[in-house]
Amino acid sequence: MASPPSSFPHLALIGAGITSLTLSIRLSALQIPHTIYEQSSSLTELGAGLSFGPNAVRALQHIDSRFVDVFNKTATFVGTPSSQGKRILEDEEEWREGDQVWIEFLDGTKQGGDVTPEFVIKAGNGKGHAAVHRGKWLDVLGGLVTAEIQFGKRLVDVVRPDGVKRWVKMVFGDGTEVEADAVVGCDGVKSRVREVLVEALHGEGEGRTNGKCGYSGKYAYRCLVPWDKAVEAVGEDRVGVSSLWMGPNRHLLTFPVNRQEERFLNLVAFVTDQSQTWPSQGPASLTMPATKMDALKDFERAGFSDTWGLHDVADRPLSSFFSDRIIVIGDAAHASTPHHGSGAGFCMEDVAILGALFEEAIAHKALTVNTLQEIFTVFDAHRRERDQWLVNSSRRAADLYQWRIPEFSGQERFEKMKADIEQRQKVCWDFDMESAIERAERDLKELLDTATR
Predict the structure, then answer these.
(1) pTM of the model
(2) How far is residue 4 from each of residues 11, 67, 127, 362, measured CA to CA in Å?
(3) φ/ψ of residue 49, rounded to 5
(4) Which residue ranges does the record assign to the FAD-binding domain (predicted)?
(5) 391 neighbors 334 (Cβ within 8 angstroms)
């Protein structure tokens, strides 16, 4: 492979999570030089199951053609409805073989083991609910990354370029300093790059407050239940589908996921408690220890070890995803609660758009340090509104699941809820990736043409 042009900027990717590694694979295909800096000692990913909607799969197709085959081999597809769910669908409309289900919604307050869904939301991908184990997917991505990853690099500060300094300088916790042409913050919910960006946009001292995510007033317990235990508890018909049990101020989500050769039931129990604050609102930590008694207070049966505080940027949205040559993407830009199952998908959309913009600049022989401003400007214009919509809509979705919307009550409650949830999921799933890329490329071309006149 020929060497990239010397005019290509060198990028520093902060964080080695799913967004960063996916972007790295795209940049390497374009021969854009970059280095990944990760504070951990190895590739690690918190959490268990990761949902991928049809929009996520379309984005992956645009990022790298290898992803489609790898994803199909790695993901757990759960689309066949339960026997009770199929009856619900037959009541609503003519049942078609091949119809696939996203989630069956159940009333969690019913007594006597009733597992009949109140309503069923169909998937928009023909395959049903798609989930991968986070660690397994990270391993897949790690095997495709060819760029250098430097571990043990906790970002402390970023010194922005000025009229004298051409480079962006990063200062790390181990005392080292590194220079690059631009910094791409892919460092997730607890993003240090976001804090630096907020200070660049709004002034010194703003980053340590308004650059941090805020506690959403909801927390969760998570665990992987061995398959045989899950089947013993509620039966194979129920554990074999994605299910969401609704209730006042609480809801429970379950779906199957494969890890290596083993199968588990991924279980996440969500609780609303806006009377409390999360320790270190920063958050310095997203989890705190949980005892069985803690879980039992919220749910009668559980086997959880940690409580996860759900943080997002709903109350502190960014006014821009970039400043000069510092940019944030993925969760670093739009950390969201997980109630649409679309956080990873929107991160993949970010990568697809940014990668397409870099490719467009290369096609016009215009990828230099000086044109990064135009690339980042177009990315911000095409991603920020949609990304922030997810943050706000995810909060609304959780309130629907937990019966916190006053107008959604009475006999028609579930009918109204289904219509609202379906509309929101369509916004997530029906995103036209190809058209979005075309529009972004067109806008970048216009900016580049203007800049060279």
Answers:
(1) 0.91
(2) 13, 24, 40, 11
(3) -85, 145
(4) 148-362
(5) yes
CA distance 364 to 356: 12
- Do residues 440 and 353 lie in contact, with contact meaning Cβ atoms separated by under 8 Å? yes
Number of other residues whose CB lies within 10 A of the CB of residue 15: 27
Please give the pLDDT value at position 288. 47
pLDDT tens for residues 222-254? Answer: 888 999 999 998 888 999 899 999 999 999 999
pLDDT, mean of residues 10-36: 98
Q: What is the chain's alpha carbon radius of gyration, rounded to the nearest angstrom? A: 22
Contact (CB, 8 A) for 145 and 24: yes
Q: Are 170 and 196 in contact (CB under 8 A)?
A: no
d(CA 39, CA 52): 26
Average pLDDT score over the chain: 88
Structure tokens at 323: 């400043």
Which residue has better confidence, 286 or 211? 211
pLDDT of residue 292: 44
Buried b (16+ CB within 10 A) or exposed e, 245-261: bbbeebbbbbbbbbbee
- Please list the residues that pair with 177 across neighbouring strands: 171
Q: What is the mean pLDDT of residues 153-172?
A: 88
Q: Is residue 123 pLDDT above 90, yes or no?
A: no
pLDDT tens-digit readout, 309-348: 999 999 999 999 999 999 999 999 999 999 999 999 999 9
Burial class of residue 146 in the structure, from the number of CB atoms within 10 Å of its CB (0-12 exposed, 13-18 middle, 19+ buried): exposed
Do 331 and 345 meet the contact criterion of CB atoms below 8 Å apart?
A: no
Q: Which CATH architecture has domain 11-46+133-213+315-399+422-451?
A: 3-Layer(bba) Sandwich (3.50)
Q: Alpha-carbon distance 313 to 211, whole Å?
A: 9
Compute the average pLDDT of residues 370-381. Answer: 97
Residue 152 to residue 405: CA distance in whole angstroms: 45
- Residue reference for tokens 């959604």: 408
Name the residue among 268, 322, 275, 321 with its Cα closest to residue 299.
268
All CATH 3.50.50.60 domain ranges in the chain, comma separated: 11-46+133-213+315-399+422-451
| Residue 343 token pair | 């956080």
Rounded CA-CA distance 57/356 in Å is 16
- pLDDT attached to residue 355: 99
Amino acid type, 383: R
Cα–Cα distance between 348 and 344 in angstroms, integer?
Answer: 6
Cis peptide leading into 117, omega within 30 of 0? no
SS3 62: helix
Q: Put the strands of the sheet holding 177-180 in their side by side order.
A: 155-159, 168-172, 177-180
| Chain mean position to CA 210 | 21
